[in-house]
Amino acid sequence: MGFITADSVKDSYDVVIVGSGAAGGQTAYTLAMEGAKVLLLEAGRNYNPATETPMFHTSNMAPLRATTTSDKPLGFFDSTVGGGWTVPGEPYTNASGNSDEQFTWWRARMLGGRTNHWGRNALRSGPYDFKPYSRDGLGIDWPISYEDVAPYYDKVEMLIGVYGSNEGLENTPNSSEGVLLPPPKARAGERLAQHRGKALGISIIPIHRAVLSRALDHQTIPAKLHPHNVKAQKILAREMQARAACFWATDCGRGCSIRANYQSTTVHFPPALATGNLDILPNAMVREVVLNAQGKASGVIYIDKATGKDLKVSGRVVVLAARSCESARILLNSKSSQFPNGLANSSGMVGRYIMDTVGAGLSGQFPLLENLPLHNEDGAGDHVYAPWWLYKEQKAGKLDFARGYHIEFASGRRMPNAGELTALNNLAGESYGSGLKDAVRRYYGSTIAFSGRGEMIPNDQSFCELDPNLKDRWGIPVLRFHWKWSEHELRQVAHMKRTFTSLVEAMGGKVISQTTKYGHAGIRPGGNVKHEVGGTVMGADERKSVTNQYGQTWDVKNLFVTDGGTFCSNADKNPTLTIMALAWRSADYLLSELNKGNL
Ligand SMILES: Cc1cc2nc3c(=O)[nH]c(=O)nc-3n(C[C@H](O)[C@H](O)[C@H](O)COP(=O)(O)OP(=O)(O)OC[C@H]3O[C@@H](n4cnc5c(N)ncnc54)[C@H](O)[C@@H]3O)c2cc1C
Ligand code: SF4
After folding, report:
1. What's the angle, vertex CA 489, arms to CA 483 and CA 494, rounded to 5?
2. Which is the closest atom of ligand 2 to the Cα of 260?
3. 384-386 and 463-471 strand pairing
């Protein structure tokens, strides 16, 4: 078993998984390590970070000094080798022509999906986040609570390696003792924010990030993650030793060839493949799930991109992990006489309640950070963040919006690309010669970008459906999006900007730019933060949800969804750690049901 082509697919598998990002990676890992025979299909090409990551390239080695372009919107060296804001031949549409009602869809089409270049901010959702309706009467409660997920957060953190600290703040859960790796020190600009933020009542603490600040404990973790499974323990111990600790000198968005940060390609797949239980088939674009005469899923039909042929693979269980809206699209395209409106859609909820993270930003310049001694601050993104701090005020009705946001900080002297140097030129007011050099030395590292990441409340106007007219290059109907921010999100963004301005002033700086280019006074468009969740929400009532608490669809018991589609809310905490924790939980349940013969 290993990487295969369409010719070498076996007759049948225990489980067929669609998608290889955080959800598909975690699902495949858990199932293969525990003995299930798994086939994973990925629409994008194979990708090997060890050999392909341009980790040590400098900006001068790239066109336009590596700055962002329409082809490489996250910079020339970003690890997205397939996909982005557009995927050739695979469009999507928006129902509304109104610029405030657009959903923008970032799709990574490659092995590992978005995990190759995600920001690695790995925050737990807290107890309030699973019961939002009970707390303020808006949105919907999850059918599970924080306590159901907490053991799986611990497991994922131990497996992938997450640094951070336990601060005991409200609705910002601690990890179990010994689970987190030590956080790196705050950078100069981050320390200034920490110090001055206190006066505003904002605690700025070490962020939780999926980066190895030291080697993983390969002697004790494998037995904790796979008790009674000696083979899995040995494989995992070996793979943990093959991952080096971070050396804090390169840009994680290019991927990490030494496996010091989490991407499914370097963390989930190597051990899962080493079990001999996992086949991975790249360039396989799944069109639909197939049902047998008993109404159970019997496999999927995919297009082999090498030949353009429609082919079928069979499995006892099918898991969709293609990312939230892609999984909804596959379900909507799986029509049959039993499910004329799409598979697992007897509730009519497939595609409903899609959410993104609320995003807005502002940058400041700080005289206190000018002319600092030359030093390097590359590596691993921001080291600190500010969790939402106004839960009590919000509960008491003192704010004009529901649900909070956290603040991320981009500061420091990291290797600049041409775009950043242009911004510096503007700041310095010099564009040539020794005046420019002096100005760059003075100003470089003296700016900080503040990003708000807030919770969106699910609403009836934000959903996806099949476009009745348009198909992609594979002949598959594409998605049409409907999108609307509510007053809660718009007021939240206004609050973000007031807070950032106050922080800048408290730090002795001045505001130099903010996200006013977007509509609705600067909120980033739906999908723009690239944290899409919802569309196949879980619930306790099968009339109002697509899956149960394990991601098992109500209508087809051997069909599961393990990506963010099942989210009932989208807390300000970035979603990926929760996606992986829930995927592990679903896979445990799936295995036990499979072994009992219930699937
Ligand atoms: C620039 C950026 C920064 C981010 N930063 C953070 C962060 O700091 N913290 C955080 O929590 N999250 C972050 N995210 C979000 C994070 O990447 C996603 O939440 C996570 O990757 C979701 O995992 P997934 O498996 O659902 O989807 P993906 O990682 O997108 O993987 C889905 C895979 O399925 C494949 N696929 C899709 N359709 C089909 C089909 N029909 N057939 C076969 N295969 C298919 C895709 O090609 C893809 O490889 C960031 C995302 C981006 C883009
Ligand atoms: S900063 Fe660390 S984790 Fe990130 S790419 Fe460099 S070595 Fe890897």
Report:
1. 130
2. 3
3. unpaired
Cβ count near 150 (within 10 Å): 17
Ligand 2 atom at minimal distance to the Cα of residue 211: 3
Nearest to 137 by CA among 387, 395, 485: 395
pLDDT tens, N- to C-terminus, the chain (599 residues): 589 999 999 999 999 999 999 999 999 999 999 999 999 999 999 999 989 998 888 888 888 888 888 778 888 888 888 888 999 999 999 999 998 999 999 999 999 999 999 999 999 999 999 999 999 999 999 999 999 999 999 999 999 999 999 999 999 999 999 999 999 999 999 999 999 999 999 999 999 999 999 999 999 999 999 999 999 999 999 999 999 999 998 888 899 999 999 999 999 999 999 999 999 999 999 999 999 999 999 999 999 999 999 999 999 999 999 999 999 999 999 999 889 999 999 999 999 999 999 999 999 999 999 998 888 888 888 899 999 999 999 999 999 999 999 999 988 887 776 666 666 677 777 777 888 888 888 888 899 999 999 999 999 999 999 999 999 999 999 999 999 999 999 999 999 999 999 999 999 999 988 766 555 668 999 999 999 999 999 999 999 999 999 999 999 999 999 999 999 999 999 999 999 999 999 999 999 999 999 99
Alpha carbon nearest to ligand 2 atom 6, residue: 250
**Ligand 1 residue neighbourhood (C-beta within 6 Å):** 18-24, 41-44, 74, 106, 108-110, 113-115, 117-121, 284-286, 321-323, 326, 330, 530-531, 563-564, 574-576, 579
Tokens of 137: 């009467």
Radius of gyration of the chain from its Cα atoms, rounded to whole angstroms: 23
CA–CA gap between residue 265 and residue 349 (Å, rounded): 32
Separation CA 109–CA 121 (nearest Å): 21
> In degrees rounded to 5, what are phi and psi of residue 286?
-75, 130
260 lines ligand 2 (CB under 6 A): yes
CA of residue 76 relative to chain centroid, distance: 21
- Sole residue written with tokens 């996200």: 515
Instruction: Look up residue 481 and give its two tokens.
Output: 């999006």
CB distance 248 to ligand 2 below 6 Å: yes
Closest alpha carbon to 444 in 417, 416, 418, 470: 416
Question: Whose alpha carbon is nearest atom 5 of ligand 2?
Answer: 252
Q: Hey, how many other C-beta atoms are within 10 angstroms of the C-beta on 465?
A: 18
What's the CA angle centered on 122, arms 120 and 127, to 5 degrees?
160
DSSP secondary structure string, 577-599?
HHHHHHHHHHHHHHHHHHHTT--
Q: Among 533, 576, 582, say which to mutate for ligand 1: greatest number of ligand atoms within 8 Å of CB.
A: 576
Cα separations in angstroms, 460 against 358, 486, 561 = 17, 10, 21
Angle 433-443/418-428 helices, nearest 10 degrees? Answer: 100
| SS3 call for 205 | strand
